[in-house]
Specification:
By secondary structure, the chain is an all-beta fold. It has three domains: 3-154; 157-247, Immunoglobulin-like, CATH 2.60.40.10; 254-345, Immunoglobulins (Immunoglobulin-like, Sandwich), CATH 2.60.40.10. Helix content is 2%, strand content 56%. It contains one helix and 30 strands. The strands form five sheets. Strands 1, 2, 3, 4, 5, 6, 7, 8, 9, 10, 11 and 12 form a twelve-stranded antiparallel β-sheet that branches. Strands 15, 16, 17, 19, 20 and 21 form a six-stranded antiparallel β-sheet that branches. Strands 24, 25, 26, 28, 29 and 30 form a six-stranded antiparallel β-sheet that branches. β15 and β16 (199-200) form a beta hairpin. It is rod-shaped.
Length: 366
C-alpha cells in the first residue's frame, strides 16, 4: 500500500482565502516517513472559478522556518470540491507537501480548506514567490491542518522469516512482504554457505502487501550452516530482509573402505576410515562374503570413531585361494554410511597367490 504525506483532503471548518496575491502553503502535520515518489495528490478546494496554474511541491526543511523545494508540478486546473491529480514528485524521509496558488481577479477567491489544530505546524508565504524555492523563509502560522494529501509509492518493506521443513539436503526459505510501497512487487531469496550468499532463487511476481512467499532449495550439504535473506523489488527500488540462518540436519557419516591387509590362507584384516562423522562419533563394522552380495556382518565396534579415525577387523575361517568381497560401515544418530565394495583373494594352501609359486611371489615382492 502507498504511504501518505500531508492531511486528508476533506471539507474542513475554515478556508485559507486567496484573491489578490499568490499563496504558498506547506502542510506540516504529516511529513514523509519513506523515500519514494508521490504518484497522486488530493486537494479539497472551495472555488468560485476554476484556477490554473496551481503547483504542488515537495519541500525539504532546512531548519526553523526555512525550506527548499525538492520537486514540483502543475496540477491545475483545480475545481470546487475534491481534486484528484496524478503526479510524479520525488520525496525523501522528512519532506513536506505544499501548494502554490495563483493570483486571481478580485472577487474570485481560492479557498484551501483547513482546521485549527494545537498539535501541528503549517507554513505560508504571501510574497510573489515561485518554484523552485531555495533556502526560503516562510511564515510559521503554527497550528493548522490543510486539506492537501499525497500518496507515496516507495520501495517495498520485507521480512525474512525462519526456514522450515529442514532436512539433510533441502529446506524451505520463507519471507513476508510487509508493504508493497504502493506497487506490485517481485520477490526472491539470496542464500549460501557464507554471509556473502552466492546463490539466488528466481524472481516471482504479483506480490502485494501482506503476502507471504517461500522457495524450496535443494542439494545442500548435510550438517552445515546456511545463510539466507528475502528480497523484494518494485518500480521504485529493491529491499533486502534481515539475514536468517539455519543448520541442515547432519546426514549419515561418510565412510571409505580401505584395502585389506595381512592376507593369509584363512584370514585377513579389513580396514576402513571415517571421512566425516557429521558431528557425532560412529560405531563401525564390516560386511563381507564370497560374492558382492556379501552376507556376513562383523560385530559392531562401539569404540566411538570420529572424523579421520581408522578402524579394522580381523576375519578368520576363510578358504584358501578364494576371492572375498567386503565394505566398511559407520553408523551414528544421523544414519548409516557405507563404503564402496572392495575385494581380495586369500593365499593358496601352499602360501602362493593367484596360482603363482611362493618363490616367484617372494621375488616379485622384493
Amino acid at each position: 500500500m502507498a504511504i501518505d504525506i500531508g492531511a486528508d483532503a476533506i471539507d474542513r471548518v475554515y478556508a485559507a482565502a486567496n484573491a489578490s496575491f499568490k499563496l504558498c502553503l506547506i502542510e506540516g502535520s504529516n511529513p514523509a516517513t519513506v523515500a519514494g515518489t508521490v504518484r497522486k495528490v488530493y486537494i479539497y478546494m472551495e472555488l468560485s472559478v476554476a484556477c490554473n496554474p496551481v503547483y504542488v511541491g515537495i519541500f525539504t526543511h532546512q531548519g526553523s522556518n526555512v525550506f527548499s523545494s525538492r520537486d514540483h508540478e502543475n496540477v491545475g486546473p483545480l475545481y470546487d470540491g475534491i481534486n484528484e491529480k496524478d503526479v510524479d514528485l520525488d520525496v525523501e524521509i522528512g519532506d513536506y507537501i505544499g501548494l502554490l496558488m495563483p493570483i486571481l481577479a478580485t472577487g474570485n477567491g481560492i479557498d484551501l480548506d483547513y482546521d485549527a489544530s494545537w498539535t501541528n505546524n503549517y507554513w505560508r508565504t504571501l510574497a510573489d514567490s515561485n518554484f523552485p524555492y531555495t533556502n526560503y523563509t516562510f511564515d510559521n502560522l503554527g497550528k493548522r491542518i490543510i486539506s492537501l494529501y499525497g500518496e507515496i509509492d516507495s520501495a517495498p518493506t520485507i521480512t525474512t522469516d525462519p526456514a522450515t521443513a529442514i532436512t539433510p539436503h533441502t529446506a524451505t526459505l520463507n519471507g513476508t512482504l510487509l508493504d508493497d510501497g504502493g506497487l506490485v512487487c517481485e520477490v526472491r531469496f539470496e542464500w549460501g554457505l557464507t554471509g556473502a550468499y552466492g546463490n539466488t532463487t528466481a524472481w516471482h511476481g504479483g506480490y502485494t502487501t501482506g503476502m507471504t512467499f517461500q522457495e524450496r532449495i535443494y542439494n545442500l550439504p548435510g550438517g552445515v550452516l546456511v545463510y539466507f535473506r528475502a528480497v523484494a523489488r518494485n518500480a521504485i527500488g529493491t529491499t533486502y530482509g534481515a539475514q536468517e540462518r539455519f543448520n541442515t540436519i547432519p546426514r549419515e557419516p561418510i565412510i571409505t573402505t580401505d584395502p585389506a591387509t595381512q592376507i593369509s590362507t584363512g584370514s585377513a584384516v579389513l580396514n576402513g576410515t571415517v571421512i566425516d562423522d557429521m558431528g557425532a562419533a560412529c560405531r563401525t563394522r564390516f560386511e563381507y562374503g564370497g560374492t558382492s552380495v556379501l552376507g556376513v556382518e562383523t560385530p559392531w565396534d562401539m569404540s566411538g570413531f570420529a572424523t579421520g579415525a581408522s578402524f579394522l577387523r580381523t576375519i578368520v575361517g576363510l578358504s584358501p585361494g578364494d576371492s572375498f568381497f567386503y565394505r566398511a560401515i559407520g553408523e551414528n544418530r544421523y544414519g548409516r554410511g557405507y563404503g564402496a565394495i572392495r575385494s581380495f583373494t586369500t593365499l593358496n594352501a601352499d602360501g602362493s597367490r593367484s596360482g603363482f609359486p611362493m618363490e616367484l611371489l617372494l621375488l616379485t615382492e622384493d
